[in-house]
Specification:
alpha/beta, TIM Barrel, 11 helices, about 350 residues, two-stranded antiparallel sheet, ten-stranded parallel β-sheet
């Protein structure tokens, strides 16, 4: 979908937008289900990158302390607890620039993935930059989806990160897709971007071929000590508008209501689900930030008549469309558009 169309859709009267997104949602998602995903930081802090929003960067003075990669037994304990608590996807994040074949940390992660893949949940990892060989090995080990957000528009990205480029992100996404993994890819609202930046980010995402399997829409939770630690938090109506436009632009993707839910009322979350969100991060913590308690989430879902989506660990990655509008130049450079 091109920017002009996205701009027109976004700037409709609020209720007209929600009406349209709800119709698209009901066409493609006929059951009242929400995917419950648990996110675990398996390696926290000490990252060499300079992402301006991240408390795990070694370049900033924050409350996050660097920790070593968790052992297989520790991760399995957390994964088993997540499954018992109703999670259908287990996501593991590591704070580093990327992984490379032949390194001890990559071998350790592969072993962890193989263990978690035996539990019947979908397995998602976010490990930074990937090459084609690393992506293939992770797929063979049992990874269902690879998370690698593009965060914001290509134009605004250099204001947020300087230690890698927007096209570096796209290259990793291409490698993950070529290996047969689904891609979980979205953005963060509240990075000092304009509405136009948000829509240009969505333009890139909607022109991926194949589309992302899931699209997290995060609201920045400002972290003290980071360059964006004093940013104003995004209001709930802006967040819901982006969820609605994402649902319209990428109708078959799961749209994940992600970071920032602690700042939303139950009513605002209900509106987000109505607008097209059908996935949440579930559990008391998101990497280093707080998240609503699991029992509160389950109570809200019951109140709304929603149920947990069943896991699908053998899920096939979305297929590329034979015909797709020409992708933006920044996407085409990495080969992620048709």
């Amino acid at each position: 979908m091109n920017y002009t169309d996205l701009h027109r859709i976004y700037h409709q009267p609020f209720f007209d937008l929600i009406k349209q997104s709800r119709a698209v949602h009901e066409e493609h998602w006929t059951s009242n289900e929400v995917q419950l995903c648990t996110l675990l930081s398996i390696k926290t802090g000490g990252c060499s990158e300079d992402c301006g929003y991240c408390a795990q960067s070694a370049r900033y003075t924050t409350d996050v302390k660097a920790e070593k990669l968790m052992g297989r037994e520790q991760v399995m304990e957390r994964a088993l607890a997540a499954r018992a608590n109703g999670s259908t996807r287990f996501c593991m994040g590591a704070a580093w620039k990327g992984v490379r074949v032949g390194t001890q940390k990559f071998d350790q992660v592969v072993d962890i993935v193989k263990d978690v893949a035996t539990l019947g949940m979908e397995v998602c990892v976010t490990l930074g930059e990937l090459g084609s060989e690393e992506a293939r090995i992770l797929k063979e080990a049992g990874v269902t989806a690879y998370n690698h957000n593009i965060d914001t528009s290509p134009e605004h990205y250099p204001n947020i990160v300087t230690t890698h480029t927007f096209d570096d992100r796209l290259s990793t996404i291409r490698h993950a897709q070529d290996a047969g993994m689904s891609v979980c890819c979205g953005g963060i609202l509240g990075l000092g971007e304009t509405i136009e930046d948000r829509l240009k980010m969505l333009e890139v995402l909607s022109n991926f071929n194949p589309h992302p399997e899931s699209v997290p829409i995060n609201a920045l939770m400002p972290q003290k000590g980071t360059p964006l630690g004093e940013n104003v938090q995004v209001d709930s109506f802006s967040l819901v508008r982006m969820i609605a436009v994402t649902r319209i632009a990428i109708p078959r993707a799961k749209v994940r209501l992600s970071a920032g839910r602690t700042n939303l009322s139950r009513e605002a979350q209900a509106l987000a689900f109505f607008a097209g969100a059908n996935s949440i991060f579930y559990g008391d913590k998101l990497l280093t930030a707080a998240n609503p308690r699991a029992n509160e989430d389950l109570a809200l879902l019951r109140e709304l008549g929603l149920s947990a989506q069943q896991p699908n660990p053998s899920m096939e990655a979305p297929l590329a469309d034979e015909v797709r509008e020409l992708a933006p130049a920044s996407c085409a450079l990495a080969g992620c558009g048709a």
